[in-house]
From TrEMBL:
Gene3D superfamilies noted in UniProt: NAD(P)-binding Rossmann-like Domain
Protein name: SDR family oxidoreductase
Keywords tagged on the record: Lipid metabolism, NAD, Oxidoreductase, Steroid metabolism
Family to which the UniProt record says this protein belongs: Belongs to the short-chain dehydrogenases/reductases (SDR) family.
Any one Gene Ontology molecular-function term assigned to this protein's record: oxidoreductase activity
Domain of life: Bacteria
Keyword Oxidoreductase set for record: yes
NCBIfam families in the cross-refs: PRK07231.1
Amino acid sequence: MSEELSGKVAIVTGGASGIGLAAVRLFATAGASKVIMADVNGATGEALAAEIGDNVVFQETDVSSETAVQALVDRAVNDFGGLHVMFNNAGISNRLFDSFLDDDLQDFRRTMDVNVLGVMLGTQRAARHMAAHGGGSIINTASIGGAHAGFGVMSYRASKAAVLHFSKCAAIDLAQHNIRVNVINPGHIRTKMASWSDTGMSEAGFNQLQSELDEINLSDQPIKRLGTPEDVAEAALYLASDRSRQVTGIVITVDGGVTAGDCVNHVKQIHDAQARAMKL
Ligand SMILES: NC(=O)c1ccc[n+]([C@@H]2O[C@H](COP(=O)([O-])OP(=O)(O)OC[C@H]3O[C@@H](n4cnc5c(N)ncnc54)[C@H](O)[C@@H]3O)[C@@H](O)[C@H]2O)c1
């Protein structure tokens, strides 16, 4: 078992599901003295934390609340002796519209509150402690949707673009305090948020939807393997650990190559067109 987070106290927001849950598990096995799983979902969070191990605790937290985020940082400091790693990972998507023309923007404010304000509050409140105690590592989850333009979920895309830009600015501002700020851009990762399932869906319906989504997601991904929350958690562990002590203001993209470039192979089409032209 690796011990690279030995002696460190870490907070993972959105820790009760998907990427956050995988990070909580990985940080706990990497020897963190305490991992605080912070999530709005108190119903499952408490039990999940208890099941992972003695070095994991749950704190019900809405990251868009200044009071709740401050209470979270205070718990790390007062109950566990400090805060070395802050993984601001909680995020929500907005409703998927075929066209921006149809978007009623009803969920714009909540999306911004959770995805942008939540990350900014988490960064600031963690950094205020870290600045006075030798520094630390802050990791913010954005998305390939914030780095690359495309269809649908416009509020979500805008919120994640804001996370990317803010995090680089914070990296510059906070470096003088030995605080590193880095970003992870997940691509298509099979989680609850990415399932697009309706609450009224049967199990059979969910399974069919999931397999169709897998096919859609793999169509623009050079690596033909579905990304997992654990793939993203590995990037978070690297950024949390001292292995990345010289690294700040960067973005680690975990997307199987989706954003590396156009993965439609035009070469064969060009060769076929050349062959047809040669016959004329
Ligand atoms: N899954 C993907 O394909 C994908 C792609 C790009 C980016 N992301 C980002 O990764 C992060 C994690 O998403 P996921 O896919 O694991 O989703 P998920 O839905 O499985 O987990 C998100 C967790 O965040 C919690 N949460 C929601 N609002 C919160 C709030 N206000 N305060 C505290 N916790 C809150 C939820 O209860 C949930 O437990 C998000 O920021 C998301 O935008 C995911």
